[in-house]
Write a structure and sequence with these properties.
By secondary structure, the protein is of the alpha+beta class. It is built from 4 helices and 9 strands, in the order αββαβββαβαβββ.
């Protein structure tokens, strides 16, 4: 027991010393810099789905496969790259009716499959959504607007965050009649926020697809900096 107590005491002291060492023992000033840039999206990723409920599993499967094959086939015929299209396997589940009394009753089967499409010509986005209707697609799960060269905008947001942190530090030091003496610590993690337009809607809400045109997305970044204050 004494040996275990000594080990526990040693570990506790070690953790405490590490926490103390992490805090500067000299005058300092900490700021958080934020930066953001606005970009016009040039890529869209849409996920569509077809769901069918039939009396038997084979009928449900055939109905779903027919819609997916028609949708994918039309996209390929219109010149969309096969690499830009991905589809999931068939999901099939029995559907039951649960009466207030008695056992559950099997009433049919629901089949569903999803297709994800990456679009690099946003002017055709509405046409793809409209065309999906005629192919039997009956649900849009989400639409994400992105930019191809995301790293370029991320770097711009990061530099803006660094500038913001520096400006705040110099402003605070000046206000308190102090002078900065370099940087003690920089803390950064890629915790940027990149809002994308996501929407789930019924397929008959076709007119709303026009709202995705001329949209803007914001790419954000932040950095935490601790500066030394000259003594």
């Amino acid at each position: 027991m004494k040996k275990q107590s000594l080990v526990a005491l040693f570990l506790s002291a070690l953790c405490t010393s590490q926490l103390v060492a992490a805090e500067p023992n000299f005058p300092h000033l900490s700021t958080t810099g934020y930066g953001e840039v606005t970009a016009t999206p040039d890529v869209a990723v849409i996920s569509v789905q077809v769901e069918e409920t039939m009396l038997n599993a084979e009928q449900a499967k055939q109905a779903v496969d027919k819609a997916i094959d028609a949708f994918v086939g039309r996209l390929l015929a219109e010149g969309v790259s096969r690499d830009s299209i991905s589809s999931t396997n068939l999901y099939l589940s029995p559907q039951y009716h649960y009466p207030k009394a008695g056992q559950a009753e099997l009433v049919g089967y629901q089949a569903s499959r999803q297709v994800t499409l990456t679009i690099y010509d946003l002017e055709n986005l509405n046409a793809y959504l409209e065309g999906a209707l005629g192919d039997g697609i009956n649900r849009i799960d989400d639409i994400q607007l992105k930019v191809k060269d995301e790293s370029k905008y991320q770097e711009q947001a990061r530099m803006a965050a660094i500038k913001d942190a520096n400006n705040k530090a110099h402003s605070l030091a000046k206000g308190f009649e102090q002078k900065l003496d370099g940087i003690w610590q920089i803390r950064y993690s890629n915790n940027s926020s990149r809002p994308v337009l996501m929407k789930s809607m019924a397929m008959d809400a076709r007119n709303e697809s026009s709202s995705y045109q001329d949209s803007q997305i914001v790419i954000r970044d932040r950095v935490d900096v601790t500066y030394k204050i000259k003594q």
